Structure to design on (104 residues):
C-alpha cells in the first residue's frame, strides 16, 4: 500500500455507512497482519478500528492481533494499531490484549 492509497481509503472511511466499511474490512482481512506493521497500512487498520462496528473490530482483532500483540507492540507501526485497539475495543477485548502482554 502506498501513501496516496492509504490516505484515499482513510478519507473514504470517515463517515462511511456500515456496508462500505464492511466491504473494506473484507478486502483487508486476508492481509491485515501485514498491514498492521506497514508504514501506510497501519493507518487504514486504525481507521477501520475507529469507524468499524463491533463485528468489524472483532474480525480485525481475531485475524490480525490475537496471538501477536507482543510482537506488534514492539514494532514501530504495529504498536500504533495495538494502541488504537485498546482505545476502541470493549473492555473484554482490552482485557484480552492486556492478558497477552502480561508478564512481558
Amino acid at each position: 500500500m502506498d501513501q496516496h492509497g492509504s490516505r484515499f481509503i482513510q478519507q473514504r472511511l470517515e463517515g462511511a455507512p456500515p456496508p462500505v466499511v464492511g466491504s473494506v474490512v473484507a478486502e483487508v482481512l486476508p492481509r491485515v497482519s501485514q498491514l498492521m506493521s506497514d508504514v501506510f497500512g497501519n493507518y487504514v487498520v486504525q481507521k477501520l478500528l475507529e469507524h468499524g462496528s463491533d463485528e468489524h473490530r472483532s474480525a480485525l482483532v481475531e485475524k490480525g492481533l490475537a496471538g501477536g500483540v507482543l510482537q506488534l507492540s514492539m514494532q514501530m507501526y504495529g504498536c500504533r494499531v495495538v494502541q488504537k485497539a485498546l482505545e476502541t475495543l470493549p473492555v473484554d477485548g482490552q482485557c484480552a490484549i492486556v492478558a497477552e502482554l502480561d508478564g512481558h
In short: The longest helix spans residues 54-65. Residues 11 and 47 are 9 Å apart (CA to CA). The chain is about 75% helix and 0% strand. The helical segments are 3-13, 18-28, 32-36, 41-51, 54-65, 69-73, 78-88, 91-101.
